[in-house]
TrEMBL record:
<comment type="similarity">
    <text>Belongs to the glycosyl hydrolase 26 family.</text>
</comment>
<feature type="signal peptide">
    <location>
        <begin position="1"/>
        <end position="27"/>
    </location>
</feature>
<dbReference type="InterPro" id="IPR000805">
    <property type="entry name" value="Glyco_hydro_26"/>
</dbReference>
<dbReference type="InterPro" id="IPR022790">
    <property type="entry name" value="GH26_dom"/>
</dbReference>
<dbReference type="Pfam" id="PF09212">
    <property type="entry name" value="CBM27"/>
</dbReference>
<protein>
    <submittedName>
        <fullName>Peptidase</fullName>
    </submittedName>
</protein>
<feature type="domain" description="GH26">
    <location>
        <begin position="54"/>
        <end position="401"/>
    </location>
</feature>
<dbReference type="InterPro" id="IPR008979">
    <property type="entry name" value="Galactose-bd-like_sf"/>
</dbReference>
<feature type="active site" description="Nucleophile">
    <location>
        <position position="322"/>
    </location>
</feature>
<feature type="active site" description="Proton donor">
    <location>
        <position position="214"/>
    </location>
</feature>
<dbReference type="InterPro" id="IPR017853">
    <property type="entry name" value="GH"/>
</dbReference>
<keyword id="KW-0378">Hydrolase</keyword>
<dbReference type="Pfam" id="PF02156">
    <property type="entry name" value="Glyco_hydro_26"/>
</dbReference>
<dbReference type="InterPro" id="IPR015295">
    <property type="entry name" value="CBM27"/>
</dbReference>
<keyword id="KW-0326">Glycosidase</keyword>
<keyword id="KW-0732">Signal</keyword>
Amino acid sequence: MNKAKKQVTTALLSILLLFSMAIPTFANHQESKPVLTKKQSPSYVDLVDQKATSQTKSLFAYLESVRGNSILFGHQHATTEGSTISVNDGTESEVNKAVGDFPAVYGWDTLSLEGKEKPGKWEGTQAENREALINVMRIAYEKGGVLNLSAHMPNFVTGGSFYDTTGNVVTHILPGGNKNQEFNEYLDMIANFANNLKDNQGNAIPVVFRPFHEQNGSWFWWGAAFTTPAQYKEIYRYTVEYLRDKKQVRNFLYAFSPGSPFNNDEAKYLTTYPGDEYVDILGFDTYNNGEGTELWLKQVVEDAKLISKIADSKGKVAAFTEFGYSNMKVSGNPDTEWFTRLLNALKSDPDAKRMAYMLTWANFSAEGSFTPFRDHPTYGNHELLDDFIAYYNDSYTGFNREVSGAYDIEVKTIKEDGIIHTASPTDKATIKNATTTIRVRAVDSSVSKVAYSVEGSDKEYTLKFNAKENYYMADWQPKASQNGKTVQITVKAYLGNKVVYEEPISVNVEARDVVAKTYDFDSSVAGMTSEGTYPESISMELSHDKKTLKNGTVRLAVNIPDASQTWQELKLKMENLELTNVNKLKYDVYLPIEGNESATIQGVATVPPNSSEKYGMGQSKRLADLEKVKIGNDVYGKYTAEIDLSTAEKLEAATELGLSIVTSNLNYQGPIFVDHVQLLNDYKEPVLDPLVVDEFEVYNGSNAKLDEKYTVASQGDPINLSLDQNHKYSGDYGLKYEYNLGGSCYGGVTKILGGVDWSEQNTLQFWYTPDGNDQKLVIQVKANDVSFEAYPTLASDEPQLIQIPFNTFVVAPWDTSHIGEKLDAVNAKKVQEFSIYVNAKELGTTLSSVLYFDDIRVITK
């Protein structure tokens, strides 16, 4: 295990983009005395946090100076997990037992703060878990190590884990969402940890914080299938601003780390990038199972090269934020030189080698280790131990002893220009409420006015600054004519007459109860007339009342003498109405309760001249169950009629509506009040058959709407979907599926089904046109958290209707924890996702081709 002394010149390097500092000096593994690093006069760094502590600024500068001279090795749970260590208190490490030194980079997760991972405990309080994590981190810091904190946050909607992808979580935790407070409390926990993480002199200990990682995949609730790019950017920005600005966390560097590969496409890598103002470290995550390693290594080098260049252009640190040999066995691995091959591949490219560090995952078990072990009581030495020792001995790798002066470099931060961004709504968001709050934040930016406009009008509406929320805010109410459509909102910020910020935001409006017209009768009851009563023994007089309620209202002076009657109808009519885009009627009725507690009331509507077709039937309520309202000295019940008119024929052409108050068993003489009549547009979700995956008709020819429902596999080759009218089985449209096999040798798309029940069906059926190229078509169904696959042929090019029995599906070969499971009635009761992949049959295949699909459904045979 003797490692040759690593020699690094002490000449000063000229670091790209404002970095100018000494090369780190690496200590000899055989010597215990530290080697000091030369310093030069203060330099400047461009950080997310201009007020970062001096140690945090130094860490950033140090990591930048490492690039190209060494790559630091990191390990998740380095001193709190391992099958060959005897304690989990931060003093022992499986890596140290294997090679004689600790990692240079130590990783933990916010799960430890929750007590779900060591050193936290399930039964521990939040304070106890916080102190436990602080203690092991402080030990690593005192060794000179670099600390990382990732964040596998729980599902704030369902209470499930980070793997629970249901509930559209990001929508609910962004500002204005009903789970924003719960998310804030989680961030409070992180901030409380960060602000208490201090060394023995009381200085805050720096941490690389890496939230919302691998977001371009779809295995976490913040993944691409469940979060738009704009939503991801905003939740990342919100997290940074909350910790930095609200909670005054000054010891975090912020890392951005989507999953590889990126196919040498900068735009793909930056799809969810929240902006230079919010990221200090650019990273990427990727794993390999030892098979197809050569292709994987090529991808890693391409990705590292790409990210290194992007980091240089932005003044950021580049890092290999997470990597690993997944499913690495104690023995019998297909690749026993995996670590050195990976290192040599990175070293082979002058840009790829410029990763500041590379962090592998935790050793939660001997059979699931990510670093090889030594002297295991059952297994002895791991099969890859010699290779890992060679990796360690390589002069380019940096372990704990070689980290020197990471927190002593004197640097200053550059003053930021500031940023303005729209926090809500986000681009391509779906608006579900009739009122949406527009929120704009100006961080370190001077503005004199913030305003928004809506497509179709040049009128601007001013947002007011809310000091408590620290947002410029205004409420926007879409028009009834905009419900069910895509609407563009343009937000602008001004400094004087100059526009300093402009952002167009497209939103899908699918709102409940968008108001087309409201009648409050404050000044008159014009347009409201009496149409009599049923039976005629009931009397009613209509008038305008300006005194009884707060404002004006319709007063009905009634005499209903016979409590034995079961249909007592007070008929009203509203005239001169514009009913285009109206599909719902709503109005309030006030009537006394005392003496009539058992009587019932309901509202009904008609569309004249057809008075026989009544809408709103079956919504009667007992007067005793109504909301109580004090009017004068009497207690009235408030009944709100909500009447669906979506099935009413000729409604848009009508100019009148009949509305009736129908009581049963009421005996009353006196006033009844009608107020706040609203004509509404209520968005109706398309009624989808749970047994139909897709018929491609619901998108109405819109490829944009199609794209919203399907997520392209982030680590695969490019896939392009579009609707096609020439290749179909039925209806107006089929699916055109263009695939481009290249560096990843596979590509695919996924549609979220949300847990539909297929337990009474037994066969998947669809129409498709193969392309005759004989690649591997994979039809994947995720059911009950198990991924099942079937493999129809692509050898022919004949259109065909295919039926695949459930019992012929097999568990995906990579889903090793579920091998042997069947797509039976138990698993089919909860079908979560449907995917179509095309895999290359041979490595290195490059091919672009087209498939067509239609009428994908499940049946019973």
